[in-house]
Amino acid sequence: MIQTAEDLRATVFSVLAEIAPEADAASVDAAESLREQLDLDSMDFLNFVIGLHKRLGVEIPESDYSRLSSINGVIAYLGARAR
Amino acid sequence: MYEFRMPSLGADMEAGILSKWLVQPGDRVKRGDVVAIIETEKSDIEVEIFASGQVEKILVEKGQKVPVGTLLATLATNGEAAAAPAPAPKPVAAPPPPPTPVPVATPAPPPPPAAGLRSSPAARKRARELGIDLAAVTGSGPSGAVTLADVEEAVPAHQHVHPVARNMAAELGIDLSKVTGTGIGGAVTKADVEAAVRPAALEEPVAPRDRAAAMRRAIAAAMARSKREIPHYYLATEIDMSRALAWLAEENRRRSVEERILPAALLLKAVACALREVPGLNGFWVDGAFQPSAAVHLGVAISLRGGGLIAPAIHDAGRKSLGELMADLRGLVQRTRAGSLRSSEVSDPTITVTNLGDQGVETVFGVIYPPQVALVGLGTIVERPWAKDGMLAARPVLTATLSADHRASDGHRGATFLAALDRLLQAPEKLP
């Protein structure tokens, strides 16, 4: 399954919306920290990673969490693996 | 007979609103079933029943606010049920069919074509959907057969409902027979359903803004009582977390993403084990005396995304494996934020843990939640210079605090607890 960056972006936001319902693509700065912008705690972030895993089948080890700090980071990371 | 009463869902609760019954007279329930939704100042709680039997009478109607302890319903417990048949006949919920596969009985069989009564298959199907008796429909087809058009004709005017309106009504739980249609031929339109919603919405007992205010009041009352009545003493210690975090990282490497464990769960486990070692902190202060609790039900303070907090309990936290504790914690956070907590989760924490680590706070001294006698505060884990055996190194460090009720324990006891917590976290692999 090859995903375009646009597909990935839509998937990422739909997973985010389940965790932080007030999050919307327009108000999130894709280059800035997700946890800070959306006030995600570690449980929210874990649910985010689980959600991405369920949708895309990507294994995300804990040691890679730091690469998922912003939307841009998440899309770059997943883009290299979700295929 | 079992009496189902308004439960106390937290020490600060005086009354609750019965927002929904999930059972009706005649229904069979078993211990642990969720039978009603009660709205408190803080949240909607799914209330479980602690007996098995058959619902006899429902004494408090939906929407009523009643004090804790009010009789809500009665239950004929097993054995009695036969002697006291439920007054409300409930043919629909008749005993479930035997487990043997009876395919014939499952779908409603098409009405047998009685003499002189003929109908097309499409007409029969539509009649079943609409609940129309074919015998009462005048057929216009060959030999007087009832056609699909005849069935549609036979639908009473108020039953003409636009599909969008029907879906909307189903979602909102609106009874369509009570909606006046304004469409062509009296058909019910989406606007009609919307109009019917408005009065119902006004009956909603608490609007979201009131809910936030009510939660603020509930927290204010409990915290003011705590500071008025409880002589708090406070202790803090710094714990080297390098072993615990290294062990957890290794453990998580072996686990699938769904089974990964957060440091918070490991900390809860260690707190529960330390509490089992050190008495005097786990239990309640009631009528001038400390009542210890044998089981450790950890109240976990969970902040809500719109503000406010709830501290539901993880039961028997000391006996649960780390994986179970993590699953419980995840479920609890999810249900708290979704507003679907169970009554057993909110009623009886024996001590509370507050973890402000995610906010970057290093030290938190909490306010005890009465009638509990202690509160454990956990801060964020930060890298700090750490001197040990004459060597200086950078280590991840956690500040753990204890706020405790001086009526129930002394500082020495509290210090023993924090020391036990530290010791347990230096050997996480040994946690039972």
Write the layout of secondary structure elements.
The complex is a heterodimer of chains A (83) and B (432).
Chain A lengths: L4 H15 L14 H5 L3 H15 L14 H9 L4
Helix pairs in contact in A: 1-3, 1-4
Chain B lengths: L1 E4 L9 E7 L6 E2 L4 E6 L4 E5 L4 E6 L6 E3 L3 E7 L2 H4 L37 H10 L17 H7 L8 H10 L17 H14 L4 H22 L2 E9 L1 H13 L8 H15 L5 E4 L2 E4 L5 E3 L1 E2 L5 E2 L2 E2 L7 H17 L2 E2 H4 L4 E5 L18 E5 L3 E7 L2 E15 L5 H15 L7
Parallel strand pairs in B: 5-16, 12-17, 17-18
Antiparallel strand pairs in B: 1-8, 2-4, 2-7, 3-6, 4-5, 6-8, 9-20, 10-11, 12-15, 13-14, 18-20, 19-20
Helix pairs in contact in B: 2-3, 4-5, 8-9, 8-11
What does this structure look like?
The complex is a heterodimer of chains A (83) and B (432). Chain A is an all-alpha fold. Chain A is 53% helix and 0% strand. Chain A has helices spanning 5-19, 34-38, 42-56, 71-79. The model of chain A has no long low-confidence stretch (mean pLDDT 86). Chain B has 432 residues and is of the alpha+beta class. Chain B is 30% helix and 23% strand. In chain B, strand 10 and strand 11 form a beta hairpin. Chain B starts with a strand and ends in a 7-residue tail after the last helix. Classes of the chains: A mainly alpha (83), B alpha+beta (432).
